[in-house]
Amino acid sequence: MTAFARAESKSIVWEVRSVNQRYLDVNLKIPESFRFLEPTLREVLKGKIQRGKLDCLLRIEATADDPTDLQINQQGLEKLRGAANQLSALFPEAKQPTTLDLLQWPGVLEQKKPDQDALGAVIAAVFADAADALTEMRAREGAELERIIREKLKELSTIVTTVRAEVSLIQERQQQRIRDRIAELRVDVDEGRLEQELVYQAQKSDVAEELDRLETHVTEVLSTLASQKPSGRRLDFLMQELNREANTLSSKAIAANTTIAAVELKVIIEQIREQVQNIE
């Protein structure tokens, strides 16, 4: 499901993007110095998101109100001053180093390392905020997808109801056409054999079972949509079952109306399937 969320606290910024994916695939882009947090961050996602490809980017930005993290190496500076005094005694005419020269000497000015554990805790907390925001956005999109799918299911049910009402009439017309054709040919036909053939044709073109299963699958899709559990994979399976019944209906069709209805069913099922791919 496509979504984007951002969360920040002072210098910590998390950006999380998700796109459609059949399974959960998490890509954490974090500095190597904080790679030890990866299990913790993945645990934050556990239970929140079940499907999708997630790109999670951590940025640690410098801010104007950050305290300085530079400090002077007093011991190193004393040694450097001692060496400079020795050089001055040997070469009185040499130019004395300035304060800036001393600070630029390697090892004199050191960068204070931040408290990794404390900073790691902040990073994890901000990540949890970003994950919550992403989950909320995905939930809003999911509600819209559910609305669309329910509308499509209504269209599908209407077609099933129409076909069911027409099936008996179509079979009666088919049988009457066969009788009329035999009458036109003026041939003697064994009435018992004819009845057997008509029964066989009726059974061959009977789509009541397919229509029943279509309605059952629609009911199951509606029930799955109402569930609070992740349902994307189950809906995937139900779309396959709906499509199978629509194909069977098409193969049994003996009238143009039924064939057209089967095609319309398959179009609607495919439209629903495309939306289902976005559902967790």
Task: Break the fold down into its secondary structure elements and pairings.
Elements: E1 3-9, E2 12-19, E3 24-29, H1 38-45, E4 52-60, E5 70-72, H2 74-90, H3 99-103, E6 109-111, H4 116-185, H5 191-204, H6 208-226, H7 232-252, H8 256-276
Parallel strand pairs: 3-4
Antiparallel strand pairs: 1-2, 2-4, 5-6
Mind explaining what this structure looks like?
The chain is 62% helix and 13% strand. The chain is of the alpha+beta class and 280 residues long. It has three domains: 3-65 and 121-138, 2-Layer Sandwich (Ribosomal Protein S5, domain 2); 70-111; 142-276, Butyryl-CoA Dehydrogenase, subunit A, domain 3, CATH 1.20.140. The strands form two sheets. It has a four-stranded mixed beta sheet, covered by helices on one side. 18% of the residues are buried.
Care to give the gist of this entry?
The protein has 280 residues and is of the alpha+beta class. The protein contains 8 helices and 6 strands, in the order βββαββααβααααα. Helix content is 62%, strand content 13%.
Provide tags for this entry.
280 residues, alpha+beta, Ribosomal Protein S5, domain 2, Butyryl-CoA Dehydrogenase, subunit A, domain 3, two-stranded antiparallel ribbon, 6 strands, 62% helix, rod-shaped
Give the helices and strands as they follow along the chain: EEEHEEHHEHHHHH
Which fold name fills CATH's third level, the topology of the largest domain? Butyryl-CoA Dehydrogenase, subunit A, domain 3
The general outline is: rod-shaped
What distance lies between the first and last C-alpha atoms, to the nearest angstrom?
7 Å
What is the level 1 CATH name of the largest domain? Mainly Alpha
Count of helical regions? 8
Count of domains? 3
Q: What composes the largest sheet? A: 4 strands, mixed
Q: Which architecture of the largest domain does the CATH hierarchy give at level 2?
A: Up-down Bundle
Annotation, overall tally of beta strands: 6
Q: Roughly how much helix do the residues carry, as a percent range?
A: 55-70%
Q: Note poorly predicted spans.
A: none
Q: In which order are the strands of the major sheet placed?
A: 1-2-4-3
Strand content: 5-15%
Could you say which structural class the secondary elements and strand pairing correspond to?
alpha+beta
Spatial extent as radius of gyration: 37 Å
Global mean pLDDT? 81
